[in-house]
Amino acid sequence: ALLILALSVRLYGLGERSLWADEFCTWHVSRMPLGESFRWGPELTKPPLYQLILRTITSDPHPPEWVLRLPAAIAGILAIPAAFWLGTLAGGVRVGCALAGLLAMQSFHIHHSQEARPYSMLVLGCILSTGLWYRLVTSRRSVNWVLYVVAATLTFHAHYLFVLTLAAHVIWLAFVSVKRDRRFPRFPSFALLAVGVLCVPMVWHYIVYRQMTFQGLDWIRPPTCASAFAVLAKLSFGYAWVFAVLAPSLLFWNTKWKRGKSHIPNRDRLTVTPGVKGQVAPRDAQAPGAPGFHSTRGSVLPIDWLLLMWLGCAWFGLLVISWIRHPAMVDRYAIPAIVPALLLPLLVSQRLFQKGPFVLMAAFMAYGGVHRLDQSSAVALGFRELVEFLSERVDPAKDAVVLTIDDMADLHWDDAERLGFAYYPLPTSMPYSELHVAPDGITVENPEVLKDPRAFWLMVLHTDPFPILERAGRKALQIQIENRWFSQLLFEPYRLLYVAPLNTTP
Question: How far apart are CA 282 and CA 110, in angstroms?
């Protein structure tokens, strides 16, 4: 039932929204020659898995929106049974159902499951690789080794940010090794080595284009503590979840472990038996009250610590990178943290109250459903609606259309800003020109556009156009729509202004 719910909310209206700037980039690289696509500036922060899937499922040079978004939607749907499996592994069937239900109605995950970008693939890969990593370290079966290497390699080829989740795996393995015999287990170590070898081409690609990659992230502002917590709140049903559920849960966590009150199945727990260093307690000795379980002298290494490290690396690690290297705290970049942020409170709620996960699931699924209805009733206007608006309003004899291009060296951003017109073309009869603005945001590199005596509709992405228009003697007029007046119109991500004809009177 939860899978059907997830499928319906992710496939409904998949092609109704206009593509936006980043989705145009996805479409563009999937139609470029493969070798050239690896060097195209705006996509240097994204490994090629998504575009390779698009090349496989369609050869249409102009596929519809729903086809471009289909791989993301499928990955978002598959994340629900994957979340059920991980939740069951961590806390039993109740926690698995609760996690699947929460993720099924989590609006941020739904949004990125309906966007032609690799973020839903990143979430799916992080879920699978983390669960397989836990199984690999605890059971050491060869099938887990193979599955983990495949899942981790594919996830890294979906997005470089998987490296933060991979770091959590390494830290947890080091923690396990210290608690056992102070040596890294060979089987998991070989798995990490295999993943590293298979990812060498993408690591080399990142090293070669590192400078251009960081230039492409210049739009991100340095984060504050408030903005970092706002990102976490967006990942986990708002501040109500973060402060009213997560913080108290962590506060009472250790207390419940020491008392030994747990409703979690005890299978596959790494348990150090007191007095027997470096040995794992047998399965029949892992029941509550057995030697080495919940003992103040022994040490328990459950999956909870892996989840904590996953949350810490995927969210707090991104914040640390933003402080010491380059700003990168963006909500979609922190999306791998969505699963541990939801799962950890479910685990602790089950320790406080056996049916606690179902209570949280019911409350926040209802909250997510209401939020989803609010979002679907207020769909933002995009580039498709912008082209339709211009097609109705522009008089080719009197008006023109001008697109501002923010010239940035070596990044091909000028190509990216034209992609909207490539996918949603203007009528061929409509006069069209470009206004190139230098990186300083003031200097115009082709001022003859501003000397055109006609009125024109000016589309602006990043630049502040008013100082430029004022220096050129041009004036932006009010736009009338059904007896209402607007200084400018917003068609995400563009602003649309109407510039009056040039006054040629002496």
Answer: 42
